[in-house]
Structure formats: C-alpha cells, structure tokens
UniProtKB/TrEMBL annotation:
Pfam families: Glycos_transf_2
Domain Glycosyltransferase 2-like: residue ranges: 10-119
Designated name of the protein: Glycosyltransferase family 2 protein
InterPro entries (UniProt xref): Glyco_trans_2-like, Glycosyltransf_2, Nucleotide-diphossugar_trans
Organism: Rhodoplanes tepidamans (Rhodoplanes cryptolactis)
Length: 475
C-alpha cells in the first residue's frame, strides 16, 4: 500500500474534512523530522475531501486511498493501523495541526524510552475552546496502567506516536452497535497493558473544537442510547482487565467496573449517570457480563436466589451484591408469573425479594412497608417478555400531610400513567394494566406545597406513600 522504509506511518482518516484537511497536510509537511510516510484514507467515497488532498499528492511520501464503502471512524482507523509496517504509527485527525518539531520530539522520547509503547504531547484546544489538555504519564504494573486509562478516560495519548508492535498485540478498536462510542478509551487501556504511555511536556498538538463532531453528537443523544453505550463501556473495561486478574479475582474486577460506571468522584466523567437507577443499571451490566465472561460465583448466587451479601468489602462490592440480589429476585418473580400467573411482592422489613427491586427515593423499610423519602422514588418491576399484566399497588399515606396524590409512571411495553389518591391512615390501592416487555421502570412522584414558617416559606412534599405490596397477575 505504501513504502515501508520510513520509521513512522502517519494515518489520516478523512471524511467531510475538505475545509481543513489542507491545513493539516501542510502542518505534516512542515515537520522537521522527515522519517515518515502519510496515508490518507478518505471514507465513504467523499470526493470533496479527496479533491482537497490532491495538491499534496505530488509529494512521494503522501498516498491517498478512497474507501468507497463507509467504514466509520473506528473502521477507518483500524484499516489505517493495519497498514503500518514501520516501527511507529501516528493517528492524525484531519483537521488538527502541530508544531514543526512534534514528530521529532516524540521520536526522540521513544528512542530514549524503549519500554514505552506510546509517546504523546499535551493538547491545546482551539476555536471556541482554550483549555490545555494534559495526560500524566501512565506507568506502573500493567493492571494499574489499564485501570488508570479507564478511570481517567483521557484520550490525549490516542494522538501520540505508538509502536507498531504494540498495536499488533493490542488488536483493533472494538466495533459496537453504538457507533463504537468511547471505544478509543477501551483500546488505549488495552494498549497500556503492553507498556508505559509517556507524556512529552509542551502543547505541541492543536485540536479544533467542532460543534458537529462525532463525539459532540454522542453527548446530544437520548438517555437510552447513552445508557447502552455506558454499559458497553463497562463490558469493554472488563474485557481489558480480564487477562490481568486471577480467576479468583474476577468478581473483584466486576465490582471495580460497577464502581467506575455508577459512582461520581472528583475527576470522573460519567457519560451516563445512573444515579436515578443504580441497582437496575448495575444489574444490567452484571447480566450482560455473565453472558460474555465466566463469572461462576455471580451466576451461582443469581441461580440460588440467596440474598446474603457475598461481595461486599471490595471496591463496588456492595453494588455487585445489590445487582445480584436484583437479578435473583427478578428471576424468581418471572418464574412464578410464568408458572402460576400471579405474585405478591412485599416491601415491609424482612421482605427481601421486594426490597431488592427498590431504586432511589426510599427510606429503610419498617413494619408497614417502604416509605418514600422526598418527592420521587423508583423501583423496577420484573415483568415477563410477553402478555398483559395487572399491577396493583397497595400502601399507606406517609409524610406530614397524609393527604394528596402520588403520580405513578410505568415504563413498560406501553407506558402507563396513573394517579394514586391517598388520605388519612387508611390503606389504599391503585392498579394499571401493562404489556410485558421485561423489566419495567416505575416512578413515583408527589407534588410540592408551600408551607408557612416564621422566617418565610419553604416547599415540602404534600404527601407520600409507604409502599406495602405490589400484586402482579395476568390481565
């Protein structure tokens, strides 16, 4: 495809880049280091971008290839990496520029640090963004390096100088059904298993901020899509860690993944925040993990229905316990519904199956049930995949006023909404008929009222509910 006598292959994936790719190629041509070749892969038969590259093709070290079929950002980079025959590969975005000594500085650092698999500079944002992006060197044990990348989700090294031999051991970027969103971080973490990632100080790389960039579009997508991406990122984390942990520590690795996905911390980025449904989200991750990885202790706990904590104590172990309890309870409920057509879930203290289905917004259950805590609460109903089901909610009013209305939204096959009128200390019920489509998210909301206080006004929940039980039966 391209001459192989150069130490560096610069791979430029191009698509809809006619406006800026000329400036990028001029920046490459201005490099003081001349030990490179350039391979431009124009995706999807983009004739305008191809034409913008034409003035640079008289230079023998520059080759342009047309990809008539759309490869996507991930497929195009994978194709380019597979063409590398020299010692190094450098991914270069179609609209970014660098200082003339960029390659020389990175190559000198690579020669001085033969154990490093990736050398990279600082990154200066331009055009609407002025921040300096810095990624500290990633060193230490292989597992620590991989975890550091997955924790930080810092993509600066992705644009560095990478040893071709390490790329061969790492393999291609994973392709997912979700535009491979954030898979560059999973790939970088796998690269970090192979050796150190070393920072070369100084803002040598300049990156444009685009309102229409692929990653910007990802952030504007609907919550359900972002949730699916975040689950897949967690599975990519586990895939990365899998070869680095002993068999006895694989449940520990799963707990670490759940902690990273679910818990905000300073410096952490959550592409999807599962704060409103931590247990349901963790259970979704665990369920998919069990289909892809050998997790016998987790699978046994789910199958047994034993709700005793097994994994608490380690990082994310409490989340793993709650996810396992949720999956075990859900499986038991579905079996009962399929066998008998009806089930009653209790939420009072001691009713483990019902409590395992609770999400946010509930106080500790007492003898009367699980009281709402605040204006909203949620739980998950494990409905079968087919059929129509009558769901009856029963409980007592709670809160200072003990009178009002609780709104209930059920996100099932056909979403349902109902109002639960409550008053006094009398148990009340409300019911809905919903289609079975698997897990259904149920949200309880109470309105606010204004209460007078000596120093002014404050808002408080008008009334809440202490949920005693839910009965599900065939409609």
């Amino acid at each position: 495809m391209i001459e192989t006598d150069a130490r560096i292959l610069i791979g430029v994936p191009a698509f809809a880049g006619a406006a800026h790719i000329g400036e990028t190629l001029r920046s490459i041509a201005a490099q003081t280091c001349r030990d490179f070749r350039v391979l431009i892969s124009v995706d999807g038969g983009d004739r305008d971008t191809a034409a913008a590259c034409a003035p640079f093709l008289d230079e023998p070290r520059v080759v342009r290839v047309m990809q008539e079929e759309r490869l996507g950002w991930d497929g195009n980079i994978n194709w380019l990496m597979a063409q590398a025959r020299g010692a190094f590969f450098c991914y270069w975005q179609q609209d970014d520029v660098v200082t003339p000594d960029y390659l020389a500085a990175l190559l000198a650092a690579a020669d001085a640090n033969p154990a490093a698999v990736c050398l990279y500079s600082d990154l200066q944002w331009t055009e609407g963004e002025t921040a300096l992006a810095v990624c500290p060197s990633v060193t230490g044990f292989a597992r620590d390096r991989a975890l550091a990348v997955l924790e930080s989700m810092n993509g600066v090294p992705f644009r560095g100088l990478i040893r071709t031999a390490a790329i061969a051991r790492t393999g291609p970027i994973r392709r997912t059904p979700f535009e491979s969103a954030h898979e560059e971080f999973v790939w970088l973490a796998k690269l970090a298993r192979e050796g150190d990632l070393l920072r070369v100080p100084g803002p040598l790389y300049y990156k444009r901020k685009h309102a229409g960039s692929v990653s910007t579009r990802w952030h504007r997508r609907e919550p359900a899509w972002k949730r699916a991406v975040w689950i897949e990122y967690g599975l990519g984390m586990l895939e990365t860690l899998w070869p680095l942990v002993a068999e006895a520590e694989r449940e520990v690795a799963l707990g670490v993944v759940l902690d990273r996905l679910c818990r905000p911390r300073e410096g952490r980025f959550l592409f999807y925040d599962p704060a409103a449904e931590p247990v349901a989200f963790a259970a979704a991750v665990v369920a998919q993990a069990c289909t892809r990885f050998a997790l016998p202790a987790v699978a046994a706990a789910i199958a047994s229905g034993d709700t005793a904590p097994r994994f608490a104590g380690g990082c994310g172990g409490d989340l793993l316990d709650r996810a396992v309890q949720r999956l075990a309870a859900s499986a038991a409920v579905r079996r009962m519904l399929e066998d008998t057509g009806t089930v009653e879930l209790g939420f009072a203290a001691g009713a483990a199956a019902g409590r395992a289905l609770l999400e946010h917004g509930w106080a500790a259950p007492d003898a009367a049930g699980a009281p709402m805590q605040g204006r909203s609460a949620a739980l998950t109903l494990p409905l079968p995949e087919t059929g129509s089901w009558r769901v009856v909610f029963a409980g007592l009013p709670s809160g200072a006023r003990r009178r009002g209305t609780v709104s209930i939204a059920i996100d099932a096959g056909a979403p349902a909404a109902l109002e639960w009128d409550i008053a006094g200390r009398v148990e009340s019920r409300v019911e809905a008929v919903v289609d079975g489509r698997g897990d259904a998210a149920v949200r309880f909301t109470v309105p606010e009222t204004v209460a007078a206080w000596p120093l002014g006004l404050r808002r408080e929940p008008a009334a809440g509910i202490t949920l005693d039980r839910i009965t599900i039966s065939r409609a």
